[in-house]
């Protein structure tokens, strides 16, 4: 039950992120101190499409967390959480983004660890 709630919460965060990236890319950049332009907006919208593509699988995986397909979806979510956090942290250490990125990094790492541990526990 806890894993289902965590996956539901994660899916809702993915929906919010995808909407922001697709429809408000410059505002998303402004949060971390980057001034957007047409090229950056394009790249963020492409990124938003990638995030949006995770949503159906994540939503379906919350109902059956032990099937091989849902396991693959959960692994994909964990990989996304960790890799996107690494990319953001590297941008922070190089002063590309400001400290506003730290809570997002921490939340994604926490969600990734939680999903991984709960999914492993269910096997």
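Sequence proposed for the structure above (123 residues):
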């Amino acid at each position: 039950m806890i894993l289902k709630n965590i996956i539901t919460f994660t899916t809702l965060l993915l929906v919010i992120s995808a909407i922001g990236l697709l429809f408000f890319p410059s505002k998303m950049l402004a949060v971390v101190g980057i001034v957007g332009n047409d090229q950056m907006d394009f790249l963020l919208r492409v990124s938003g499409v990638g995030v949006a593509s995770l949503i159906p699988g994540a939503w379906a995986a919350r109902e059956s967390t032990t099937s091989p397909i849902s396991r693959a979806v959960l692994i994909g979510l964990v990989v996304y959480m960790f890799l996107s956090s690494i990319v953001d942290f590297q941008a922070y250490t190089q002063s590309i983004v400001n400290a506003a990125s730290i809570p997002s990094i921490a939340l994604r790492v926490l969600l990734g660890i939680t999903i991984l541990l709960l999914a492993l526990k269910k096997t």
